[in-house]
Recover the amino acids of this structure.
């Protein structure tokens, strides 16, 4: 995920601007959602061929910026709530392995409730 040195830069950037006052967990969670919606907008109404074309030109930078915005707000949220993102992702992977056993789900895209 975000390297500790990079997280330190993000936190310093925010502190230098005195933005912590605006970054309550609620505001950060909303910002993650807003930025994720902007990420979705990048794909909206595009065919797979158009997406692949955009990935090869200057529009790719817009996609990268939206991904970075999601990661930045999520990093702030985890930092402020003292959540180790690497740890919780690893724990979620273990839960998903139980929820989606390979022998039942390989090659399928249905929800786990459809085959339990």
């Amino acid at each position: 995920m975000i390297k500790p040195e990079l997280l330190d830069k993000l936190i310093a950037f925010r502190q230098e601007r005195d933005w912590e006052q605006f970054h309550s967990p609620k505001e950060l969670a909303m910002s993650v959602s807003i930025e994720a919606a902007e990420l979705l907008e990048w794909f909206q109404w595009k065919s797979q061929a158009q997406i692949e074309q955009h990935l090869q030109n200057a529009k790719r930078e817009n996609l990268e910026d939206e991904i970075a915005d999601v990661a930045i707000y999520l990093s702030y949220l985890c930092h402020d709530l003292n959540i180790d993102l690497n740890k919780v992702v690893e724990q979620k992977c273990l839960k998903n392995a139980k929820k989606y056993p390979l022998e039942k789900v390989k090659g399928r895209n249905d929800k786990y409730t459809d085959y339990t």
